[in-house]
């Protein structure tokens, strides 16, 4: 038991360490000011989702079985929550401090946030007139009483709350929703580069809103609600699945609160009263000294857009040297495998491939899995055109893609209307694979183009996330991709494969087998190596096998952006395991698996992290890289990421992360890959 607790870290605490690394980018003064603001906003939105999903799940677990223990550190749900809360408070204080410092820095660029204690009489008169004309008519205040029950507070909306005293000394509670799409949230004071948030204005004028009452106390509050609904557990087979998901989304918006944030400290009795109305433990109440929602910073960035030194240098996805876009994309892939690396290279060749397939008279079918797609999707447009041109188009749309359900529901309707066959996932499994199979029959011969990627078919995120996309005419890969689609069409999962790795049945076991192969090499005195790049590592069975490999002498390098439940470099246990996390301008999202030393290595790209949910509870696909040039390209990319000493943090044997301190030439791997892409495209004007 002691050994387990030493080498494993709780996943929730590991995730908080990841969000701390995001916050560090907001604190980093070498990052341009407006980009630091973005990282502060990402920190906040990450934390919102953490409470909605992970904290919500832990609270639910307490209700089910308070003695339930997670399988790595053996912590109960209550023990995890008790460890999470102080850590969140500590990180939030850092967020408050860096926000204040960034607001001071904005003053140098003529952006000022005003408050009512530090404004002139003329400004005060303007704001009062603005409030009366633009905001007061649009708000809907409520006083809680016998005839007016406590209102439903929407998830992540801001409300002004006031303690009101009547003339006879009784206290009541007044609530005003501050979220309104009609009035501007960021209010500009004319003639100055000075701004105020609308919720701050509403809070100030609470006495004008609740006339006849004495305002004893007031604050802004924001509620975060549990979003962790198990769709499969609730599904009724008699319901249309798409209609069921629509109802599920509505339910999510009404789930129990898991956090309340306040802008001002309030009397304990008032907190207890609010918590009573919301059925929320006071332990989950947080005071913030920053605005409760930082999304307004994107408006500030738009105002400052011309001050280019406040932003990262402009980068544009480049033309891939592997493609000649004046020639048929399918014909080029038929001759040689191709790889695109986002965001450094443009997604255009893949978009052109789909459009070409939609128009090509020889293409007979297109099959594809969709998890998250862009709001304005060229990919969907090509699939619709293909169906309208008489192709057999089969699309699996994963309606359980968390927080993207509404978008996917709308796309599924449009695809069906165009004549596509749409499948809505599987019972008990999310389909997270990134798989596309194009079949064409030319001069009596059947040929295939298979695309397998690490990221979603999303034009927007392909410019923001690092991802990889393989396109191949390899028949063995195509045949196994076809088996995946056939199984999905029948509501089943693939039981065996020889080339691909396909979860839930043929990924974890095959990964463990490849780790065992490296252990065998190490035991007979040969060099043995494993390199892994992914978002998260939580799968205990794989981690235990990696520990065994480390003990046998296998060298293991891992680049893991987020959660890592395995603590590296512990003598006698994980001393041969080295872990890095890269948090930079682009979200690291690609997955690369490398097994074996140079000359005998097996290299894969995949949709799957090594999390139990991915390896055993999702349909995921990893593809082997058979082309030697692409294999070498991926290995060199991995080595470059291991050499990053600007945005990479090394994890030590206590589970803490630090940027490596060395005298080497500075290397930011993301900037390096972009510079390389510009050079490869013949554009050296960085």
TrEMBL record:
How is this protein named in the record? Polyphosphate kinase
Is Ribosomal protein among this UniProt entry's keywords?
no
What InterPro entries does the entry give? PP_kinase, PP_kinase_C_1, PP_kinase_middle, PP_kinase_middle_dom_sf, PPK_C_dom2, PPK_N_dom, PPK_N_dom_sf
Q: What class of enzyme is it?
A: transferase
Q: Which UniProt keywords apply?
A: ATP-binding, Kinase, Magnesium, Metal-binding, Nucleotide-binding, Phosphoprotein, Transferase
User: Whose protein is this, by species?
Assistant: Anaerostipes amylophilus
Which superkingdom is the protein from? Bacteria
Its function, per the record, reads: Catalyzes the reversible transfer of the terminal phosphate of ATP to form a long-chain polyphosphate (polyP).
Domain Polyphosphate kinase middle, first and last residues per copy: 123-299
Report the sequence similarity comment from the record. Belongs to the polyphosphate kinase 1 (PPK1) family.
Describe the PTM. An intermediate of this reaction is the autophosphorylated ppk in which a phosphate is covalently linked to a histidine residue through a N-P bond.
User: What are the binding positions for ATP in this chain?
Assistant: 46, 465, 561, 589
Q: Which reaction does it catalyse?
A: [phosphate](n) + ATP = [phosphate](n+1) + ADP
**What does the entry list as the binding residues for Mg(2+)?**
372, 402
Where the record annotates domain Polyphosphate kinase N-terminal, the positions are: 8-114
Database matches in PANTHER family: POLYPHOSPHATE KINASE
Q: Where is the Polyphosphate kinase C-terminal domain?
A: 328-490, 500-670
One short Pfam name that applies is: PP_kinase_N
């Amino acid at each position: 038991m002691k050994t387990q607790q030493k080498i494993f870290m709780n996943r929730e605490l590991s995730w908080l360490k990841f969000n701390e690394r995001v916050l560090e980018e907001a604190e980093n003064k070498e990052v341009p000011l407006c980009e630091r603001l973005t990282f502060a906003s990402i920190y906040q939105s990450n934390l919102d989702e953490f409470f909605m999903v992970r904290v919500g799940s832990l609270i639910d677990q307490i209700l089910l079985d308070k003695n339930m223990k997670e399988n790595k550190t053996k912590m109960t749900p209550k023990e995890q929550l008790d460890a999470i809360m102080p850590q969140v408070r500590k990180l939030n204080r850092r967020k408050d401090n860096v926000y204040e410092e960034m607001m001071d820095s904005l003053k140098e660029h003529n952006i000022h946030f005003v408050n009512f204690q530090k404004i002139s009489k003329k400004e005060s008169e303007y704001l009062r007139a603005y409030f009366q004309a633009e905001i007061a008519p649009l708000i809907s205040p409520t006083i809680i009483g016998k005839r007016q029950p406590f209102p439903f507070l929407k998830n992540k909306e801001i409300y002004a709350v006031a303690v009101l005293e009547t003339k006879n000394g009784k206290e009541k509670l007044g609530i005003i929703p501050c979220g309104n799409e009609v009035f501007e949230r960021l209010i500009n004071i004319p003639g100055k580069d000075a701004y105020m948030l609308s919720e701050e204005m509403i809070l100030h004028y609470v006495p004008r809103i609740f006339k006849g009452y004495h305002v004893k106390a007031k604050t802004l509050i924001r509620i975060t609600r549990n979003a962790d609904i198990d769709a499969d557990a609730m599904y009724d087979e008699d319901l249309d699945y798409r209609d069921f998901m629509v109802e599920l989304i509505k339910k999510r918006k009404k789930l129990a609160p898991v956090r309340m944030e306040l802008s001002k400290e309030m009397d304990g009795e008032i907190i207890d009263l609010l918590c009573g109305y919301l059925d929320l433990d006071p332990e989950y109440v947080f005071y913030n000294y920053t605005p409760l929602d930082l999304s307004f910073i994107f408006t500030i960035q738009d105002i400052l857009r011309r001050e280019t030194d406040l932003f990262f240098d402009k980068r544009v996805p480049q033309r891939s040297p592997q493609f000649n876009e004046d020639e048929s994309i399918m014909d080029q892939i038929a001759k040689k495998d191709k790889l695109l690396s986002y965001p450094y290279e443009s997604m255009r060749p893949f978009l052109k491939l789909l459009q070409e397939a939609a128009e090509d008279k020889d293409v007979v079918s297109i099959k594809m899995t969709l998890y998250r797609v862009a709001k304005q999707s060229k990919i969907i447009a090509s699939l619709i055109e293909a169906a309208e041109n008489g192709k057999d188009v089969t699309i699996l749309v994963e309606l359980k893609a968390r927080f993207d359900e509404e978008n996917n529901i709308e796309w599924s309707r449009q695809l069906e209307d165009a004549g596509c066959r749409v499948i809505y996932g599987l019972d008990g499994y999310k389909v997270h694979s990134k798989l596309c199979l194009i079949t064409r029959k030319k001069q009596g011969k059947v040929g295939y183009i298979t695309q397998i990627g690490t990221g979603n078919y999303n034009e927007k995120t392909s410019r923001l996330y690092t991802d990889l996309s393989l396109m191949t005419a390899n028949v063995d890969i195509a045949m196994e991709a076809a088996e995946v689609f056939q199984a999905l069409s029948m509501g089943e999962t693939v039981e065996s494969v020889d080339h691909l790795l396909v979860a839930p049945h043929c990924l974890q076991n095959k990964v463990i087998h490849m780790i065992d192969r490296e252990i065998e090499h190490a035991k007979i005195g040969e060099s043995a190596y494993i390199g892994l790049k992914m978002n998260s590592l939580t799968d205990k069975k794989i981690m235990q096998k990696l520990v065994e490999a480390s003990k046998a002498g296998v060298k293991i390098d891992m680049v893991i952006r987020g959660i890592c439940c395995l603590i590296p470099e512990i003598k006698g246990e994980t001393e041969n395991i080295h872990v890095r996390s890269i948090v930079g301008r682009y979200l690291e999202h690609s997955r690369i698996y490398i097994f074996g030393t140079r000359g005998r290595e097996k290299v894969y790209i995949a949709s799957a992290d090594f999390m139990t949910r991915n390896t055993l509870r999702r349909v995921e696909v990893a593809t082997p890289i058979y082309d030697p040039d692409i294999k070498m390209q991926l290995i060199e990319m991995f080595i470059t990421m291991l050499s990053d000493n600007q945005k990479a943090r090394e994890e030590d044997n206590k589970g803490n992360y630090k940027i490596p301190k060395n005298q080497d030439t500075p290397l930011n791997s993301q900037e390096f890959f972009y510079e390389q892409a510009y050079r490869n495209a013949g554009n050296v004007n960085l």
